Amino acid sequence: MESQPNALVSIIIPCHNTKKTLLSDCLYSLHEQSYGNLEIIVVDDGSDAEYAAMYDKLISRMDDNDMIWKCCHNVHGGVSAARNKGMDLSCGAYLCFLDSDDYLNIDFIRILLEMILKTGVPVAHCEMVNTYKTEADWTCGIDGMPEYKVFQGLDVFKNCNGYVTPKMYSRKLIEQEQIRFQEGRRIGEDLLFVANVCERVLVSAGTKAQLYYYRLNPWSTTNKMSAKDYDQQTEAFQYLLTIPCIAEDAQWFSKEIKIQSYCKLKRMTAAIREKEHDWRQKYKNYRREYLENTAGHIVIADGMYKWLATKSLQLGAGWGIVFLMSYESLKNLYMALRNWIRKLRYEMEKRI
Q1: Other beta carbons less than 10 A from residue 248's beta carbon
Q2: Alpha-carbon dihedral 289, 162, 81, 75, rounded to 10 degrees
């Protein structure tokens, strides 16, 4: 199955009240793919009735070529349940996952599939473009094949980011290893899925070509995270530390802890901000765990925010609260000003 040059590739897109303009861009980028043997599965994760009807309408408009287009309507169970449902419904030899507000370069499928077929590895990945808008260059194809490498062991984790989306997976691997998304999670489900895949094969093919367009969305789940969400994110990060090739490499182990530090600091900030009845005890526990397991790895080269936050927490619980909340207020002010300027620039461009 994995040697077929014209294998069916299934793309699974979970949707929950996704705006029409965003989903249209997403689906159109699939409609225009240079590789045509595709099965596109939109999984409606309990959207409101008007959105569900819109999904059906968009799918019917796209269904004018040889690609297979499907729309499945589910009760709301979260993105993990929607992706699992999509995998159950899919028929492709290879699987891709696409967020409903993102889109692809027209050669995304062709290049990732070719990497898998040429190297025999079960996972291929590319780089992402962070954007606030629909970039004009997504329709610019890539001549031939971009440079790519085969990674093994720890290098797989060093070069394969924790996002589930800018990748292609062998269905055979997913089914043999019974890898699923953990349902009930709001945060970290993609990191756990990718980690489960990579630790089982410890080999992948990757290119630096930017083929996946990740739309920065201020209303996304990751921009509305609670202390509980940060707990889940921290759990996902900590799972990485149990993977032997990471745990046995002291330098990379320390780097992973430094990556986790931001999440742990934001978890403390969220606990203070939410002011639940037990927030003081939560903050105390989070602070103690941070000082015991993380603070010793942080140096000034890791960034002023992490370093100053760590020093404040070491000075005392009160100093930690003052710094974390002051930084949060300044950041919110900066973000509001930046969004206002961006909106103003957009309105001025429309008038020209």
Answers
A1: 10
A2: 90
